[in-house]
Each structure stands twice: as C-alpha cells, then as structure tokens.
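Supplementary Note 2. Why include the ligand at all?

Several targets in our set were suspected to adopt different conformations when bound, so apo predictions alone were not considered sufficient. For every target with a known small-molecule partner we therefore ran a joint prediction. The input for nicotinamide-adenine-dinucleotide is given below.
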Amino acid sequence: MAREQFQVIADYLAIPEDERDRLLYPKRAIAVACPIHRDDGKTSVFMGFRVQHHLTLGPTKGGTRFAPSVDIGEVAALAVWMSWKCALAGLPYGGAKGGVRVDPRSLSLRELEGLSRRYMQEMIPFVGPQTDVMAPDMGTNEQVMAWFMDTYSMYQGQTVTEIVTGKPVASGGTEGRREATGRGIAFLVGRATERLQMNPMGATAVVQGFGNVGSVAAASLARMGVKIVGVSDHTACYIDPKGLDVAALERHAAERGVLAGFSTELLADPSELLVQPCDIAVPAAVERVIDADIATRLRCRILAEGANGPTTPDADRVLNQRRGEVFVIPDILCNAGGVIVSYFEWVQDLQHFFWDEAEVLNRLNHVLDRAFTRVMARAGRDDVPHRTAAMAIGVEKVRNAKQVRGLFP
Ligand code: NAD
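The joint prediction is reproduced in token form.
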C-alpha cells in the first residue's frame, strides 16, 4: 500500500524514475531476536524490528507496536507513512517504526516488562535522542515507554528522558500526549465540519477501535456535541442510533480492558459499524479495514482516518469517485496529533523546560490547523484528492531537502 500510494504521488509530482528509490527505500532496517524468561521458568524468543526511513531532516521518529501481525514489511510501510506525516506537519524528523511480533495480552506484566526492556536493550546501538526516538503505538503504552527510557538510561549511566516520547508525566512526559491523537482527530473533524457548513452539535459518529486513539476521539467528539452512535473493539461492537454513553464505555474499558460485557441489547455486527448511516466515521483500530466494497457502501459525510492505513488503494479509487459525497481526512493528517505532541515532549525534555496542558493544546491546534489549511489549498489548486495533496506536501519537503543536501559521493 505504501509503495502503491507513493507511485501515485511520484507520478503526480513527475518525479524521475531514478529518484524514486532514493525517496522510498528505508535507510536502515533492523531485525533483532529478543529472548525473555517466562514465568514458568522457560525461555521464549520474540522477533523485534525497527525501520528508519530517512535521515535527511533530523532524527527519525516513530511508534513501537506489540502485535502478532508485526513483520519487517508492516513496520517499513508504517515508517514510510511517518516520514510523509512528519514532513506535512513541519517536524524536523524522518519517519521510523518498530515493533515486536507478540500478542501482548498473552504476557504477564512481568513478562511484558522483560520483553520491553530486552527490545530496547537490543536497539541501543541503533537509537538515540539525535538518531531515532521511539513512541507508543498499538499494544504499547506509557508504562512500556517508561521501561524503554529506564533501560536506555541505565545503559548511559544517566537519565535520558528524550530517548522516547509518550512517557508518563511523572518521568519526563508531557501534559496532553496520551490524548493528543484523539483530540487532534476531533479538532480536524471540527475544521472539516466548518468547511462543509455542518453543525457538529447533534451530528452522529461511529468509532472503530476503543484504545488510546479511538476512546479519546470518541470522548472529544462527544464533548463537541457529536452523538456517538456506534463503537467497537476487537471483542465487541455496539450500535445505538439514540447515542451511546461514552463516559460509561470509557469506565467499562478502563476496568475490564475491553468493551465486551458492556451491554447485551446493543450488541451489533462489527462489519456493519463503518457503513452505518452517520455524519462522521472514524476508523481508529488497524490497517486495511476499508476495502473497495466498504468504500462503496460508506454512508458518512466525513471519513476521519484515525488509524494508520485504514483505506486500501482500491478503496481510495472508489473514494476519489465519491469525492463530493465523502470528505476524507487522510491518516497522515488526521492522526498527526500524536507525533506533533511527541515532538513537543522531545523539545521540552531537551530543554528541561515544561509547558502546561493549555500551551501544549494551543500549539497542537496551531500546527494541525496549518497542515489542514495547506492540504485543502493544494487539493483545491490541483483538483486532487486530499490524500494525494497531503502526501505530496510531505514527499516534496523530503525531496527538496535531499536535493539541496546532495548525494554523498
Ligand atoms: P491501542 O492498542 O491502544 O488500541 C487499538 C484498539 O483497536 C483496541 O481497542 C483494539 O481492541 C481495537 N481493535 C483491534 N483490532 C480490531 C478490529 N479488527 N476491529 C475493531 N477494533 C479492533 O492502539 P492505538 O494507539 O489506539 O492505535 C490505533 C491506531 O491508531 C493504529 O493504527 C495506530 O498505528 C494509529 N495511531 C496511533 C497513535 C497513538 O498516538 N497511539 C498515533 C497515530 C496513529
């Protein structure tokens, strides 16, 4: 998907064939074996990966995913998307991504700590505050980032908070990071409703995924007056056209870790969630959930892509035909709030000077607003889909930087 999308952009920007590989190929791809002691005394080995896409604009930056699907291809695609996302937002980073092929739910807390520390330890030769800065993604959280930071710091003999972002505030994290991606989605939905002259008050939304991104997006949209009529996670899907109680769903998920068990009456078929009639659909779980068939059946006015890569290239072709009906906020814009506040966290850690939540949010909204305005202007000027416009701005920035720096002989 990442390759195919890049070819579309490269054709649109008329990038010569011989320049394309230089822009697309990851600079570094690392695979490591991570052995850990299990609770039963045995040893298990998990494969870990990290891809650093380009080093042209500064250190690389990107999340770490703990999931059974993780492999080098998935991580490479996510690293490439991170590059365009950082460049679109104007951050001084190349893209990176990493992960461990594991179902974190199959580990005890002690085993999870062991694996987190081992993964970071294996990565120490390849990362650093000026080389590659990690962050959370699917299956990892603030606690895992604290273990990463502690492991790296013990190796250095001093506390190095700026080695990872998305840490707890108690250990050098920033106010507002945990909520940043979800809040950013809601902010951009707000900007889209303004453009479409819709009133968010009383508009309806469905949200797929109820983890860090989905739950905060649902709560933030609800605070704007949006009625949440459907939510799902990997265990359950609930639909209620009258509106779901988001605060109660959040409490349930906080207690149980999953949505299952919240209600029996409201249970629905998960494959129906995204195609519900609604104003706003937010895929905020995993990749490739919108294929050409679902794209044809979408009945939302705004598609806010919280997840990375939720829409396949086939689906994109359908959505390009339906441009007047479905307003797409593409992933590299829609979920950029996370990396933007990660950047703020890194800056605060480097300066040992911390901002309050209002300042973080204010700056987040400013950066998102600037990126949204640029994407809309570009899409309007060249009559291209929002995804093409957003990716083109990112690709162009990296390309220009590579051109002026030149190619080391
Ligand atoms: P998370 O692990 O906190 O939550 C993932 C959620 O998706 C869980 O509720 C899980 O049950 C659900 N899920 C998994 N498979 C599903 C399925 N088939 N159907 C419905 N729900 C399913 O992860 P997250 O951090 O919220 O990340 C979600 C997405 O957002 C990922 O694509 C991630 O790459 C992207 N993203 C995250 C951040 C961030 O700051 N955390 C930033 C940018 C993008």
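The pocket of nicotinamide-adenine-dinucleotide is lined by residues 136-139, 181, 208-214, 232-234, 270, 284-286, 306-308, 335, 338 (CB under 6 Å). The first strand starts at residue 28 and ends at 37. Comparable summaries for the other entries are listed in the accompanying table.
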